[in-house]
Every structure is written in structure tokens, then in C-alpha cells.
Specification:
The protein is of the alpha+beta class and 153 residues long. Helix content is 20%, strand content 48%. The chain has 2 helices and 6 strands, in the order H-H-E-E-E-E-E-E.
Length: 153
């Protein structure tokens, strides 16, 4: 007796429709599995910041936004008193963001954050009252970032 492979049952047109539907479903699922959840350029910064950074009391300097190029984004606050501060940072989009803190033009500290949505903190000692600047930059642009500087608890 010769071996015969089993044939699918049903009319040929139905088998072709089923095969076509299965192929379409595979293409749709494969495409959606590889697609990005959304672009940084269209991200809603205030909504992201509300979930990425914890609330803090007496914030002396804060910023959130998008780093779309490698150019640093610098923010400043004058009249910051001497003391110990906590810099809380977060970023998303892949890579790493760097935050440079200076007082009256003199660098005090540098800190970095992995851009995976996690929070990082750094202790910053401000030796004298003056103007504090924080520069945010990344070579991994585009990404979304946020930080705040508040007196240490």
C-alpha cells in the first residue's frame, strides 16, 4: 500500500481564504510587535513628567523637555542658598542623559541617568549662595528628560 499524505478537507476556495487570512494576520502581528510605542518628538512632556518624577518640597530648579539634538539645554536659578541638595533625574528614549550642575560658573557635579524610565538621584553640595545652573545633554538624542533640585531631607 502506498503512503498518501492527508489532504485538507473542504472546498479549495475555502482553504485559500483561510490561508490568506492566516498570512494577513501573521503580517499584522509581526508589524505591530516591531513598531515603536510612540516617538519622542510627539511625547506629552507634562504627562510624562507627572509619572516619571516624584513630587518634592521647596524645589529650587526644575526642568523637563525633549533633547532632540546634542546641544545642551541649560536652566538657571538665582538666589540658591548654600546647603545640601538632591538632584532627582529621569529620562526615557534609550541611551543616557547627563546633568552638569554649576554654581556661579564653577562646576559642582555631574550626574547621569539611564534613559529607561528609572529615577536617579545625586547629592549636590552648594558651598555658597548664588546662581545654580543645570545643563542637560545627551549623545543619544532624541530623548525625553526631567529633573528637579530640592533641599536634601
Amino acid at each position: 500500500m502506498a503512503f498518501r499524505s492527508p489532504r485538507p478537507s473542504g472546498p479549495p476556495a475555502l482553504r485559500l481564504r483561510f490561508a490568506g487570512a492566516a498570512a494577513c494576520a501573521a503580517v499584522v502581528l509581526a508589524g505591530s510587535a516591531c513598531s515603536q510605542p510612540g516617538s519622542i518628538e510627539s511625547a506629552d512632556v507634562p504627562s510624562w513628567k507627572a509619572t516619571a518624577l516624584p513630587p518634592a518640597d521647596r524645589i529650587v530648579l526644575e526642568d523637563a523637555g525633549k533633547i532632540l539634538t546634542r546641544d545642551p539645554i541649560v536652566r538657571a536659578a538665582s538666589g540658591v542658598q548654600a546647603g545640601s541638595y538632591t538632584l532627582t533625574m529621569s529620562c526615557d528614549g534609550g541611551g543616557k542623559a547627563f546633568f552638569s550642575v554649576s554654581l556661579n560658573g564653577t562646576r559642582l557635579a555631574e550626574a547621569g541617568a539611564a534613559c529607561n524610565g528609572s529615577r536617579e538621584t545625586a547629592r549636590i553640595k552648594v558651598p555658597d549662595a548664588g546662581t545654580v545652573e543645570i545643563s542637560a545633554t545627551s549623545v543619544d538624542a532624541p530623548l525625553i528628560y526631567g529633573y528637579h533640585l530640592a533641599p536634601a531631607a
